[in-house]
Write a structure and sequence with these properties.
Oligomer: single chain
Distance between the termini: 34 Å
Number of helices: 10
């Protein structure tokens, strides 16, 4: 009985001792390091400015008597000989045509809403969610005072609401409403008068119904002569541009796909340089385009540099304005952020860092795609040989980590570019691990001679290096 109790007590005591030893080792290791979790990080140089468009434009001039009605929207692409405007005798004639078109559009919406194929497959809950999304889109446009495509947004919302009415059985169809609208159109047609004449485009290009007087000033050929004062004047007079427009100016054509945009930015830190490829985003459109910095010249003010960008991507949104808010982005990289103080080189001259993997210390390589003074971005990858998202990067106690992982792996810290690092097979460490190994393997002077002791020290060090060749350490 007493022997059994003693065995149980012995087992419990041994377990407590093992737990205490393990806890001491684990605490000594984990407290020795300061880590930072590897996360995805974006790095980019951005600057916002008021830009002035530079394009090859030609004014369409035509003498006429009456009022103009434009059958196409600004930014539409037209061919040579296409009708760009109709001449009517009065504003009332134009209003009648506008009302007829409005009623015709409503008929088309109702016909689409009661289409059997649409109604039979419509799910009320799904249509309701679409209505909410479209309503928010319209509200956002109105809040931003952007009404460039408000009509199409409104039409989409009305179509969805009409479909929903039928799907929840609140309406059987819209045949009665369609018949009523057709009756109104018939009455308006009787009152409508034909246009007196029509005006056609003399060339192909993007048509804009307004002119601002800069068509012959802000040209591609003259862009090199543009000064900061001219850019400021164009921006300052944005609201009044075109006020003195000649009556015979029907509109203008924007020719070709090449255009430029000029602005004034602060480049005192020399972040941007001629030849850089950048991305441009605009206030009037969600689209982005790629452009090249053509010139960047300083002015008398050290915080103002005249910038001219060149681009060959044209859309209808980019021809309707002369001045616009632009955001320019350079070096838009996304990768895993690695602090520069954590970087080291291994014996193969591969750049990397040490990470804490549970109770192990591993050397992982980095694949730089962007570098700054404080950090670099390593390419996103699932390859475990490289730093991955959520790795615990060791940023303090790195040299101790190097020794714990593999005394042959770590050779030097990352040196400045002007200094050439010298690589050896020894560990450069503040904790002098070689002395620690020597103390642990040195045999007693009472049992062996100095020659034997030196030989065994060398063998022990070689054995330790071979056992840690995988770049990690296990605590058992």
């Amino acid at each position: 009985m007493e022997n059994g109790i003693m065995k149980v007590l012995f087992v419990l005591l041994a377990g407590l001792i093992l737990c205490s030893v393990f806890n001491s080792v684990y605490t000594s290791v984990t407290e020795e390091y300061k880590t930072q979790t590897a996360v995805i990080y974006s790095s980019a140089d951005k600057v916002s400015f008021r830009g002035v468009y530079i394009r090859d434009e030609s004014v369409i001039r035509k003498s006429y008597t009456g009022v103009l009605s434009y059958p196409i929207s600004d930014g539409s692409k037209v061919a040579n000989g296409s009708v760009v405007a109709y001449v009517y005798g009065s504003e009332n004639d134009i209003e009648i045509n506008r009302k007829i078109q409005e009623l015709s559009d409503e008929i088309d919406l109702l016909k689409a809403a009661q289409n059997p194929g649409t109604v039979l497959t419509a799910d009320p809950s799904f249509i309701s969610s679409l209505i909410s999304q479209r309503y928010q889109a319209v509200a956002t446009r109105l809040a931003k005072k952007d009404i460039s495509d408000i009509k199409s947004q409104r039409d989409d919302l009305l179509t969805l609401m009409s479909i929903y009415q039928i799907s929840v059985k609140q309406e059987d169809g819209y045949d009665d409403r369609i018949a009523e609208l057709n009756g109104q159109i018939d009455e308006l047609v009787k009152m409508r008068k034909s246009s007196k004449s029509e005006i056609v485009s003399p060339d192909s290009g993007y048509f804009v119904s307004t002119t601002d007087g800069y068509e012959s000033v802000l040209t591609m050929e003259k862009s090199g002569e543009l000064t900061a004062e001219t850019i400021k004047d164009v921006i300052a007079n944005e609201s009044s541009a075109g006020a003195n427009r000649n009556k015979n100016e029907i509109g203008k054509l924007v020719r070709g796909y090449n255009w430029k945009i000029a602005g004034i930015i602060d480049n005192s830190d020399s972040v941007y340089n001629p030849g850089d490829t950048v991305k441009l985003s605009f206030a009037s459109t969600p689209d982005t385009v790629t452009a090249t910095i053509e010139s960047l010249e300083p002015t008398e003010d050290p915080t103002e540099w005249t910038l001219i960008l060149r681009c060959d991507e044209m859309t209808f949104d980019l021809v309707r304005k002369r001045v616009e808010r632009v955001e320019m982005t350079l070096n838009d990289f996304e990768g895993i952020k690695v602090p520069r103080e954590a970087l080291r080189f291994n014996k193969n001259n591969e750049k990397g860092c040490y990470v804490l993997w549970g109770q192990r210390v591993l050397f992982k390589k980095v694949d730089p795609i962007f570098e700054s003074e404080d950090y670099l971005l390593s390419r996103l990858t699932s390859n475990e040989e490289y730093v991955c998202v959520y790795d615990d990067i060791i940023i303090e106690g790195v040299d101790t980590a190097a020794y714990m992982a593999n005394s042959d792996e770590i050779v030097t810290k990352e040196e400045p570019e002007e200094e050439i690092p010298v690589y050896t097979d020894e560990v450069i460490s503040e904790t002098e691990p070689s002395e620690t190994v020597s103390e642990e393997t040195e045999p007693s002077a009472e049992s062996v001679s100095e020659e034997t002791s030196s030989s065994e020290e060398t063998a022990a060090e070689q054995s330790l290096s071979e056992n840690n060749s995988e770049g990690e350490i296990h605590f058992e």
